[in-house]
Amino acid sequence: MITLCMDTSTQYLVIALIRDDQIVAKFQEKCWKKQSEELFPRLMDLMKEAGLEPEDIGQVVVSEGPGSYTGVRIAMTVAKVFCAMRNLPIATVGTLQLFAGMEPRARVVLDARGGRVYTAVYEYGVLSGTVEAKPCEEVKAEILEAETVIGDGSLVGREDHIPDLAENFLALKDQWKYAENVHLVKPEYLKSSESYLPHHQ
């Protein structure tokens, strides 16, 4: 079965086509504020590269946020419409979870704008604690010297480290959260003063 994976919740556009346990085509590139323009052309290019037709897609996995308000909605809307029209399964992963992948232990830091970041710690893809939106300086003070930082590390005194998100979609396969009803799939938005536990925790 072919699984279509998509993420537009950050400045990157990420698309992956997975056949069973193997990625057959993938795309990851900075497309800040252009994801809506680039998503379909890039997807069509990948499908052509893999020799696939839209009818070959058997399910869709999409990131649920938190992230850019508009960005999160782009891939999720496409995924929901596609799955609703064809009665296909749909699953989600958290955006920070996607960045963490299956690292033994890592803190993910993603730009939340306004001098803040979304941050959380994951162990082998499982959230340890909560996802929060906090001031950059506060997070910088919290980070341990030996701690692995993934994402927009330069905002908290570390180097940026952007992983292969297509590979992480696949690595997290056992943690894809399937929805009983496509219409119940909603983005996770996080205000600057909030924290949350994802629905599947």
From TrEMBL:
<dbReference type="InterPro" id="IPR043129">
    <property type="entry name" value="ATPase_NBD"/>
</dbReference>
<protein>
    <submittedName>
        <fullName>tRNA (Adenosine(37)-N6)-threonylcarbamoyltransferase complex dimerization subunit type 1 TsaB</fullName>
    </submittedName>
</protein>
<dbReference type="GO" id="GO:0016740">
    <property type="term" value="F:transferase activity"/>
</dbReference>
<dbReference type="InterPro" id="IPR022496">
    <property type="entry name" value="T6A_TsaB"/>
</dbReference>
<dbReference type="GO" id="GO:0002949">
    <property type="term" value="P:tRNA threonylcarbamoyladenosine modification"/>
</dbReference>
<dbReference type="Pfam" id="PF00814">
    <property type="entry name" value="TsaD"/>
</dbReference>
<dbReference type="InterPro" id="IPR000905">
    <property type="entry name" value="Gcp-like_dom"/>
</dbReference>
<keyword id="KW-0808">Transferase</keyword>
<feature type="domain" description="Gcp-like">
    <location>
        <begin position="32"/>
        <end position="125"/>
    </location>
</feature>
